[in-house]
Every structure is written in structure tokens, then in C-alpha cells.
């Protein structure tokens, strides 16, 4: 059961990394793949903590930071859609800054 959990969370992690690296045009797809990666890391941390019988304080702190990261990403997405009309990375020029 332990090896199956590790294999599943690593498979989820690498599929999230693949989506993150291949779908770079839309900000929403990048944010969803980052949340997918964070979820797989949370599962991996939880499996290791259960296996070695440690306390569960770190996963709670990890979840708090991942929720803050998700809220910040969504606020950037909403701001970008309001200012530019879409979530393409190519729609705004970074060279004008």
C-alpha cells in the first residue's frame, strides 16, 4: 500500500509537471497544473508522515500556504482578464516595462 501511494503521488506530480511545461499559453492552465503539483506533494508528504509516524503539523501549514498561493494566482488571473480581456501570456508585452 505504501509503494502504491508513493507511485500514485509521483505519477500525479510528473503529469502536473508535464502539463505545466507543455501548456504555457494560458495562465489558467498554468495555475491549475501548479495546484495539481501542490496536491500531489501534499499527498506524498502525508504518506511519508503516516509511514514514519510523525506529527501532522507540517501538512496543515503546507495547506495554508498552498491556499494562499492559489488565491494569489486567481487574483492575478482576474486582474489580467480585466485589463487585457483574456488569459494569454502573449497578449501583454513584458518588454514595455
UniProtKB/TrEMBL annotation:
Q: Name one GO molecular function term.
A: NADH dehydrogenase (ubiquinone) activity
Q: Where in the cell is it found?
A: Mitochondrion inner membrane; Mitochondrion membrane
What is this organism's lineage?
Eukaryota, Metazoa, Ecdysozoa, Arthropoda, Hexapoda
Residue spans crossing the bilayer? 6-21, 28-50, 56-78
> What family is this?
Belongs to the complex I subunit 4L family.
Its EC top class is: translocase
**Do the record's keywords include DNA damage?**
no
Q: Which PANTHER family match?
A: NADH-UBIQUINONE OXIDOREDUCTASE CHAIN 4L, NADH-UBIQUINONE OXIDOREDUCTASE SUBUNIT ND4L
> What's this protein's name?
NADH-ubiquinone oxidoreductase chain 4L
Q: Which domain of life is it from?
A: Eukaryota
The record gives the membrane topology as: Multi-pass membrane protein
An example GO BP is: ATP synthesis coupled electron transport
Q: What does this protein do?
A: Core subunit of the mitochondrial membrane respiratory chain NADH dehydrogenase (Complex I) which catalyzes electron transfer from NADH through the respiratory chain, using ubiquinone as an electron acceptor.
Matches recorded under Gene3D superfamilies: 1.10.287.3510
Keywords of this protein's UniProt record, alphabetized? Electron transport, Membrane, Mitochondrion, Mitochondrion inner membrane, NAD, Respiratory chain, Translocase, Transmembrane, Transmembrane helix, Transport, Ubiquinone
Q: Which Enzyme Commission number(s) are listed?
A: 7.1.1.2
Q: Which reaction does it catalyse?
A: a ubiquinone + NADH + 5 H(+)(in) = a ubiquinol + NAD(+) + 4 H(+)(out)
GO CC terms in record: mitochondrial inner membrane; NADH dehydrogenase complex
Amino acid at each position: 500500500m505504501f509503494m502504491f501511494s508513493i507511485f500514485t503521488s509521483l505519477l500525479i506530480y510528473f503529469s502536473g509537471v508535464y502539463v505545466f511545461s507543455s501548456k504555457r499559453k494560458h495562465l489558467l492552465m498554468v495555475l491549475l497544473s501548479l495546484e495539481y503539483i501542490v496536491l500531489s506533494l501534499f499527498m506524498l508528504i502525508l504518506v511519508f508522515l503516516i509511514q514514519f509516524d510523525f506529527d501532522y503539523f507540517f501538512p496543515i501549514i503546507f495547506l495554508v500556504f498552498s491556499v494562499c498561493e492559489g488565491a494569489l494566482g486567481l487574483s492575478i488571473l482576474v486582474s489580467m482578464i480585466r485589463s487585457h480581456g483574456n488569459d494569454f501570456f502573449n497578449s501583454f508585452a513584458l518588454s514595455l516595462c
